[in-house]
# Entry
Amino acid sequence: KLSAAEFVTVRLNRASVGAKLLGRFDVKRKKPALIITDGEGLIAARFDLCTSSNDVLKAMLGCLKTSRKKAKVALQMQERFEDVETFLKQRSFRAAGSLLKKILRTKAGPKAGVRRATRIWNEIDEIGRRAYAEATETPVLTARYDLLLGLRHEFWFFTTLAKDVRAQITTLEQGEETRDTIHAHNGLKLVA
# Structure
């Protein structure tokens, strides 16, 4: 009853199925196998040899528990993705990065959610890289410095980008030719 109610049963004819499909599930053409997959198609359990029905039942129940947990986490991820989209429309990359970092740390979530978060993370990182390139090409020293400070704040969670921005800021603040101008600019900003 459990199998019919909660699982989709598929029987593969190992002789006629292509090698690519057999390879996906690591099934040998000459040996039968019982494979239990979760809702994402990932292998949750496999039985290549004779086994007891209790072992199969235990694996099926474990798979259901994991799948239900992933479904619950997927709903939470969806809410966070909606918030991320809102932040992206507002061009608030720091807030979006904070939420994406939380999504990427989720262990029990669906792989599709992690892939989506990674894709969005990379898109934001690319936006930051372009802004960084534009900021470093700005001819006016104080304007360049202000742009870099803004980038450091906005892309704080994007560690490699933030590291590059911090290094550029440090270079401007400590460079022989730029130090006095930047410190004078900081003094004026503090007074204003």
